[in-house]
Design goal:
The complex is a heterotetramer of chains A (430), B (254), C (538) and D (386). Chain A folds into 3 domains: 26-146 and 298-367, Response regulator (Rossmann fold, 3-Layer(aba) Sandwich), CATH 3.40.50.2300; 148-288 and 370-391, Rossmann fold (3-Layer(aba) Sandwich), CATH 3.40.50; 400-430, no CATH class. In chain A, 38% of the residues lie in helices and 19% in strands. Chain A has helices spanning 2-25, 44-63, 83-96, 108-121, 151-161, 175-190, 211-220, 238-247, 264-267, 291-304, 313-332, 337-344; strands spanning 30-36, 71-77, 101-104, 125-127, 140-142, 166-172, 198-203, 227-232, 257-259, 279-282, 348-350, 356-358, 366-367, 370-374, 380-385, 390-391, 405-408, 415-419, 424-425. A 7-stranded mixed sheet of chain A has the order 7-6-8-9-10-14-15, with helices on both faces. Chain B is 39% helix and 24% strand. In chain B, helix 8 (188-202) runs parallel beside helix 9 (214-220). Chain C is an alpha+beta fold and 538 residues long. Chain C folds into 3 domains: 2-130, no CATH class; 141-221, no CATH class; 240-523, ABC transporter involved in vitamin B12 uptake, BtuC. Chain C has helices at residues 2-38, 44-54, 59-68, 116-130, 136-148, 155-164, 168-184, 189-201, 205-217, 223-269, 277-298, 306-328, 337-359, 385-407, 409-419, 421-426, 431-453, 465-478, 483-523, and strands at residues 71-74, 80-86, 89-93, 100-105, 109-111, 375-378, 381-384. The chains are: A alpha/beta (430), B alpha/beta (254), C alpha+beta (538), D mainly alpha (386). At the B-C interface, helix 2 of B face loops of C.
Chain lengths: 430, 254, 538, 386
């Protein structure tokens, strides 16, 4: 029994001492930045790169002299693809390590898990991944694409340039594909597509046997109308999906697949020769030909000491978010959350595709939308681009319950879900 | 012989008729018929694979026969019941390898074996009564283990485990006790004492003993059944059976 | 109409006197090709048609290069070249003359942009140009592209080609292409009716596509014919679909079998709940990756042999890792199966993180050798080569293992040790050694499975986790300790899954299979092929 | 009868453990709420929630220990019961949000609104009432365990087979809850809770209260399990673990004995899940992950199965280690964790508490001068091969 007490005691001491220890480090000579990306577990495959990207950005900034005359210090934790652990680690970053802002999360569920923490402890999260929208929170800045910055332009492109009339919406069964497909379905129907020309299919995470579904797609595509697949298939499931497409001979010229979750990183695990011509919609491609991007890629390859490392869209989102945060802190002259939150809105920084991205009052940013075709070397080639920048629309106009909602975090409205129909904050406001 | 069995059925304690069972084509029991009378002490011998243990498995409900009848106390069909039910009916069984609850004390082993209500809630709220205490003390004395009552069963010697198991069977108060090789691995002194113990036990109930040790069986001095290839080869006194040429051929050897 | 006459003319000329025409048109070719470099994507179609009109044989490599993305424009003067990568530089070839034009740094060149529309235009232009090629395969490809993108303008060219065609296979495709094309043309009704009848005979999806769209626009008199033809094709397809489902089930089953077969040794025969089994599969896949890396950089001509080289290596590597695990950890845990679960779970975490640290967390590229790419048609079935080979491979591994266990002295020792360690040991078998080798064998087989699975799945540190539960289900369902049970279990679960999937969807189908397994275990607590016997439990 | 049943549970170690838990239940909230943040004894809210989480894990491990340590049923699906309890609580918390969701729908949770659900699915009814949700917290896992156990134990599915089908069960539930059509929020699960019993879930006071509730519930379950394992029923449990067929031949209905323990254990796991959810603020299908169930087994093994204190210590040790290492060595902590499991199975097969207990028992025996005779009772050789 004495063992139990002493063990617990020792453990408590250990916890408290680490707390005190890291507390002692929280001296005033650095500004801390939290990095909350999974380094183990299922999401490590995507998120580890973002951790490296953040470390690189912080490193570069420190070479330029840091921020407000102080050095930036990265605090890395591993939430291990475990969603409740995300909340725990977020809390630890904010309340123990006293970081000024956190860059992190990939999956929607990890973001949902940490939201209350950032709200309660009043800190800042930058979320770099394309997501389903339907959210706008005071403490979160969404630097990835909302559905209107990715899905809708992609569908427009297919309709106009490939005259697609028949649609397969294939996705992994979780919130992002569900919502995106709901939005797309409503959008397609509003464009005159008949419901029987839309096939929706959901598969579990990590689905690896695509034989049946690919053959269903082929069958669906043989109805005499030009058919395309809009894929919101997530992460790991993509490689076997594309391998099956290639082997069953589904060619981009016949049934193009446009994906929203497949970037350079995912293609790195594939022989892309049979996939040439399949599409992806993003706000950034590594192949974008601008001096800023060339510089970024060069720094990245040098930082990772690996000539084969690729860059991708969420990395650019972190690049934009990080620079916006730097600018806002400089503008506010402090890292104090409320001041930075105010200063963030309207901040405009160069993105990597040759334009400027601006933080809008709804905490989403403006971005160009690029449609790229997969090339034999695992890169994308931009085949189409929105003429201007697209503002991220947090509450989709194509969902009945969210079309009346807007978000504006500027005083005096300061509301994430203002209903323009009832004129009240808080959803229906009734 | 069938006729005699037919007549004894209502009065006999255990009644097996034409029982057969096979495993993957191997006939472990082949139309075995066998009767035990109330109060009888019976020894069973037979070569390995003769079906001795399988017979016990069938009586205690562990194995279902492919065909044949098994009745207890004349009316109760044992082939339709499972182990726990059959045990509650009053058939106790001792395994070949001594099986006691090693992480319980000798006392707890007996307490668990005591013939009381065995449901979840009756055991949950069970309190040791003076009567039960006396009964356990009594059994402890019978199996000569009173001084070791607080020792863990795991720490008993092999012979002591055998005895403890017999004690547990006593606590169960069965009407029929099936004992599989009780003296295997015992010293001569222990063997002799075990024989006395079994005879004592058999005064108040029927006992069926399976054993290889002919000396031990001679010591018991009871009716002997010899099994071979899943059927009865010979039955009678030890001298009668051991002089049967078939038994000598099959089992005892020349 | 003018255009097809042109194509036809050109085609005929090509057959008769390609050289004469070719050299005569060559002067005009250069500027036409250069136009490709500066054209907008939307205008490309016209330029391609113009090029095709020249009918010059030299156009073929240019168009091919355009489709492959190997056509570049020199930034300095806007001239377009065929290129081949050579290190950091590009080797230029003048498309009009076919002569080398030196090398240029990548930065000085800009790729001619293509998209799917351009590729489609290239494909149909090439189809017209190569329909009369000397190369049978080129003609077949051309005929297939005609079949896939029916274009009324090409009808006469196809008919000419049919008349000239000697090769049966090409002829068959051409006939189908003609029927399909005829339906979209303005030919008379009886010809169309004929075409419909021809299409109804086949089972191709192309026919179905054309018929369905023709149904909307066809004359009232033709509609009944089309409808019966569609019904007929659908009927044949329904028949083939069932066959296709069995095939998918077999192929899923073979994957399950591969994943489970190593576990059937370590878990089924030895009783070790080996949670690190999936990681052995993963290590096998990474071995394949390493082999291919070396081959790519040093011996590219050996690429088609990469899997053959990787197989024994993967077996050795994972076998060695298995040996180390057995000697280091598991040998202390015999007789405590549930504790092997905890230890091997720990080992699996360590292996996963090691691979993540060494190779990085992202997917690694493992390519398909050419003999494992693509598909072929068998009746109405589409059979992909990689799946076919995986089934063959799974069965081969199974047979080899069965042979090893049942017919060799090593196998005899393994069975002896796992059945009764003490007796085996007293008979002079070195049990620790046999244990180690058995475990190494199971691990090695898992590694070989990894080589095969690298062909259809991600090669990432998480690879193994996706298979571990399924593998256990297969072994338990089939009956622990029985290799045939694993075989039957794997294939029946695979086929069951694939028959449920069309009705219940992939997710629900999988849930149903799991529930069925749970229920099945209630019915037969020791699996499909349980070992029966007296075996007294403790 | 009940009192005598419960009184039996108190031996020294249990008494001390309960005292510590009750002490923590009062002390930690007090130190959190009553001291200033810069006070040396102040316990930050961050730690209150963290320790609250550990305590619910400890309760889950205790529940598993009842069936594994004492009855030998290695359930690799206990996280499923935990998650079901958590979902029941999560549904209550979702209903409490009411019209404060993003869309302001008074009835439907947000995830249903944006997926265009028009009405509340039938199984969501009643969860607006705490008592109903609380009932479901124990009933749903209990019922699942009862049905599952009824079939499995009756057909005598044992050992490894049982472990594997419990994995199949939790895996099937994982897939089912991932499905958005199920109506439990799919992959995102249930989040964004606001109130519990009318108190703001993010307030320090509520967190402290939840911590206290977890500690007290753990103490209560400890007393209960202790009473159970010390009763004759508990002895039967161990008997089943050690010699199942012997128990059967003594006339015990082993399937009933197992079923009761399994169901009770599932209910305790459900309670643990219900306390866990408001403290971490999310419940999602990830909790059904087969690996999670295996982890619970590992906590129990590390602490020492077959002892009641062991699983509690194990859960706190392993999770505490995880918290520290994921921050201190984010790249390498899995090596530490994996290594820990291997080392514990090899060198501490009885776990920390079991080994320490055996050591102290030996020491005491030596002091009493009976060293020679003392049965080195439970201590099987740590590395007994074969």
């Amino acid at each position: 029994m004495t063992i139990k007490t002493s063990v617990t005691g020792a453990f408590l001491a250990a916890i408290l001492s680490t707390t005190a220890f890291s507390g002692a480090f929280a001296a005033d000579d650095t500004i801390k930045v939290g990095i909350l990306h999974s380094l183990s577990g299922t999401m490590a495959i995507s998120e580890t790169t973002l951790k490296d990207a953040m470390l690189m950005l912080i490193d570069e900034q420190n070479k330029k002299g840091g921020l407000l005359g102080k050095k930036l210090e990265a605090v890395v934790v591993d939430p291990a693809s475990d969603w409740p652990l995300f909340a725990e680690k977020a809390r630890e970053l904010v309340s123990v390590d006293k970081v000024s802002a956190v860059f992190g999360c990939w999956t929607s569920v990890s973001r949902k898990s940490v939201l209350p923490v950032f709200e309660e402890l009043n800190s800042i999260l930058f979320y770099p991944v394309q997501y389903e929208g339907e959210e706008s929170q005071r403490n979160v800045f969404y630097t990835g694409a909302a559905p209107n910055q990715q899905a809708i332009p992609a569908v427009d492109y297919l309709m106009e340039n490939e005259s697609v009339e028949r649609w397969v919406l294939a996705g992994t069964d979780y919130v992002y594909p569900r919502t995106t497909n709901k939005i797309l379905e409503a959008y397609l129907i509003s464009k005159g597509v008949k419901p029987e020309d839309i096939m929706i299919n959901y598969t579990p995470f990590g689905h690896s046997d695509w034989q049946t579904i690919v053959s269903d797609i082929k069958k669906f595509g043989s109805a005499g109308k030009k058919t395309a697949v809009v894929s919101t298939i997530n992460g790991d499931a993509n490689v076997p999906f594309y391998k099956e497409l290639a082997n069953q001979g589904v060619k981009a010229e016949d049934i193009p697949v446009v994906a929203f979750s497949v970037g350079e990183e995912e293609l790195a695990g594939l022989d892309t020769t049979p996939l040439v011509g399949h599409l992806a919609a993003w706000n950034y491609f590594q192949s974008v030909d601008t001096p800023a991007n060339a510089e970024f890629i060069k720094t990245w390859k040098a930082y990772t000491k690996n000539d084969k490392r690729v860059t991708n869209d969420p990395m650019e989102a972190h690049y934009i978010g990080f620079n916006m945060w730097l600018k806002a802190v400089e503008k506010a002259g402090t890292t104090d959350t409320d001041a930075v939150l105010d200063a963030m809105i309207g901040v405009s920084v160069p993105n990597l595709s040759g334009g400027y991205s601006t933080m809008m009052p709804n905490h989403h940013i403006t971005k160009p939308v690029l449609i790229g075709e997969i090339q034999g070397d695992g890169q994308f080639e931009t085949v189409w681009e929105t003429p201007g920048l697209v503002v991220g629309d947090e509450w989709s106009d194509y969902l009945p319950d969210s079309k009346d909602l807007i978000s504006d975090w500027r005083a005096p409205m300061s509301c994430g879900n203002f209903n323009v129909a009832t004129g009240k904050c808080g959803g229906k406001g009734s | 012989m069938n006729q005699t069995i037919g007549q004894t059925k209502p009065t006999s304690l255990l009644y097996l008729d034409g029982v057969s069972v096979s495993f993957d084509g191997f006939k472990a029991l082949n139309a075995l018929s066998f009767v035990v009378e109330p109060g009888e002490l019976r020894a069973i011998i037979g070569p390995n694979g003769a079906g001795k243990t399988t017979m016990m498995d069938i009586i205690t409900g562990k194995t279902r026969p492919d065909e044949g009848q098994v009745f207890f106390k004349g009316e109760i069909d044992l082939t339709k019941r499972d182990e726990a039910e059959i045990a509650s009916l009053g058939i106790g069984r001792k395994f070949q390898k001594p099986t006691v609850f090693e992480s319980h004390t000798v006392w707890d082993n007996l307490e668990l074996a005591l013939n009381r209500k065995r449901g979840v809630f009756s055991t949950l709220f069970y309190r040791l009564t003076a009567e039960d205490r006396a009964r356990i003390e009594e059994i402890l004395a019978t199996i000569r283990m009173s001084p070791r009552r607080d020792d863990l069963a795991a720490n008993l010697s092999h012979g002591q485990k055998q005895w403890l198991e017999i004690g547990m069977l006593l606590a169960q108060e069965p009407e029929l006790l099936l004992v599989d090789e009780p003296v295997a691995g015992m010293t001569d002194a222990e063997t002799a004492e075990t024989a006395i113990l079994l005879k004592e036990i058999a005064k108040s109930r029927s006992v069926v003993v399976v054993e290889h040790d002919m000396g031990f069986i001679r010591e018991l001095g009871v009716k002997v059944t010899c099994l071979a290839e899943g059927a009865v080869l010979a039955e009678g006194s030890i001298d009668f059976v051991s002089s049967d040429p078939k038994v000598i051929e099959n089992y005892l050897g020349r | 109409m003018y255009r097809i006459l042109q194509i036809l003319f050109v085609a005929l000329c090509l057959v008769i006197s390609a050289h004469v025409v070719g050299s005569r048109a060559a002067e005009g070719l250069g500027p036409l090709i250069d136009q490709l470099g500066s054209a907008k994507l939307s205008d490309m179609d016209d330029h391609i048609t113009a090029l095709a009109k020249t009918g010059d044989a030299k156009v073929i490599p240019v168009l091919e290069a355009l489709g492959e993305g190997e056509l570049y424009q020199r930034k300095s003067d806007g001239k377009v070249f065929l290129v081949k990568a050579q290190g950091a530089d590009l080797l230029l070839v003048d498309p009009a003359t076919g002569a080398g034009a030196g090398a240029a740094p990548k930065a000085a060149m800009q790729k001619v942009k293509v998209n799917n529309a351009v590729r489609r235009a290239v494909r149909s232009a090439l189809g017209g140009l190569t329909l009369f090629s000397d190369d049978t395969r080129a003609r077949l490809k051309a005929a297939q592209s005609m079949l896939q993108t029916p274009n009324a303008d090409a009808l006469e060219a196809i008919e000419t080609a049919i008349a000239a065609e000697r090769d049966g296979a090409v002829r068959q495709v051409l006939d189908e292409a003609r029927a399909v094309t005829l339906l979209v043309s303005d030919r008379p009704e009886d010809q169309k009716r004929h075409a419909i009848a021809l299409l109804a005979e086949g089972n191709g999806r192309n026919g179905l596509a054309v018929l369905t769209s023709a149904l909307a626009t066809a004359d009232a008199s033709l509609k009944p014919d089309i409808e019966t033809a569609i019904a007929r094709i659908e009927q044949t397809q329904a028949f083939w679909n069932a066959g296709q489902n069995v095939w998918y089930g077999l192929s899923l089953g073979s994957v399950l079998l591969l994943a489970a077969i190593g576990l059937a040794i370590t878990f089924g025969v030895m009783g070790i709940i080996n949670m690190a089994h999936g990681e052995m599969v993963m290590l096998g896949a990474y071995t394949t990756f390493l082999v291919q890396e070396v081959i790519r950089s040093s011996y590219p001509q050996l690429f088609d042999w990469s899997l053959a080289i990787a197989l024994p290596l993967a077996f050795l590597v994972t076998g060695a890792v298995g040996l180390a695990i057995e000697r280091g950890v598991i040998r202390f845990l015999y007789g405590r199966p549930l504790e092997t679960l905890l230890a091997t779970w720990g080992i699996s975490l360590i292996l996963q993180q090691s691979v993540r640290s060494i190779f990085g967390p992202t997917n690694r590229e493992v390519g398909n050798p050419s003999w494992m790419s693509g598909a072929f048609e068998l009746g109405g079935l589409t059979i992909t080569w990689n799946r076919l080979w995986i089934i063959v491979f799974a069965l081969a591994v199974f047979a080899a293992l069965l042979f090893l266990l049942k017919r060799t002295s090593m196998g005899l020792k393994m069975r002896a040790v796992t059945q009764n360690r003490r007796i085996a040991s007293s008979m002079g078998i070195r049990t620790p050694w046999v244990d180690a080798l058995t475990f190494a064998l199971g691990s090695g087989i898992a590694g070989m499975a990894g080589v095969a699975l690298s062909q259809i799945d991600n090669v990432s540190p998480n690879l193994g986790q996706g298979y571990i539960i399924d593998s256990f289900m297969v072994v338990v369902f089939g009956g622990v300790g029985n290799l045939w049970g694993t075989l039957v279990g794997a294939f029946s679960l695979g086929i069951l899954n694939k028959f449920l999937e069309p009705y219940a969807g992939a997710v629900l189908g999988k849930i149903l299979v799991l529930v069925l397994i749970i229920l099945f275990i209630q019915k037969k607590p020791r699996g499909l092929f349980a070992l029966k016997g007296r075996a007294v439990e403790a | 009868m009940i009192t005598s049943f419960l009184m039996r549970s108190f031996d020294r170690s249990i008494l001390i453990a309960v005292a510590i838990l009750v002490g923590l239940a009062m002390l930690v909230p007090a130190l959190n709420l009553l001291t200033a943040p810069d006070h040396p004894l102040h316990v930050p809210t961050y730690l209150v929630s963290l320790f609250g989480k550990y305590l619910t894990y400890a309760l889950l491990a205790l529940a598993l220990d009842l069936v594994w340590g004492f009855c030998g049923i290695l359930s690799l699906g206990h996280a499923a019961f935990f998650a079901l309890g958590g979902y029941a609580m999560g549904m209550y918390l979702m209903r409490q949000i009411g019209a404060r969701g993003s869309y302001g729908n008074p009835l439907l949770p947000d995830f249903m609104v944006f997926l265009n659900w028009k009405e509340l699915p039938w199984f969501w009814h009643g969860f607006d009432m705490f008592w109903f949700a609380a009932l479901m917290v124990v009933l749903v896992p209990g019922l699942l365990a009862f049905v599952f156990g009824w079939f499995a134990f009756r057909s005598r599915v044992n050992g490894v087979y049982l472990s594997i089908i419990t994995q199949a069960m939790t895996y099937a539930l994982l897939l089912a809850f991932f499905r958005n059509d199920m109506g439990f929020g799919g992959n995102n699960g249930l989040t964004d809770f606001k109130d519990i019993l009318g108190f703001n879930i993010q307030a320090n006071g509520t967190r402290a209260a939840l911590f206290a509730a977890s500690a007290l519930m753990l103490a209560l379950c400890l007393i209960l399990t202790s009473a159970i394992v010390r009763s004759k029923y508990g002895k039967v449990l161990v008997a089943v673990r050690d010699a199942e067929s012997r128990t059967r031949f003594l006339g015990y209905r082993v399937e009933h004995i197992k079923l009761f323990a399994f169901t009770l254990s599932a209910m305790m796991a459900g309670i643990a899940g219900a306390l866990y959810v408001p403290q971490v603020g999310i419940i999602n299908p990830g909790e059904f992950e087969p690996g999670n169930s295996i982890e619970v087994v590992i906590w129990t093994a590390v602490g020492g199965r077959g002892t009641l204190i062991g699983p509690i210590v194990g859960a706190i040790l392993v999770n505490g280690g995880k918290s520290i290492f994921t921050a201190a060595f984010p790249e390498f902590w899995l090596f530490a964790l994996g290594g820990l499991f291997v080392l514990v199975t090899l060198f501490l097969p009885k776990g920390v508490v079991g080994t320490a207990g055996a050591y102290f028992a030996r020491r005491r025996a030596e002091l009493r001068g009976q060293a020679a005779e003392t049965p080195n009772n439970l201590a099987v050789e740590p590395m007994a091969a074969e």
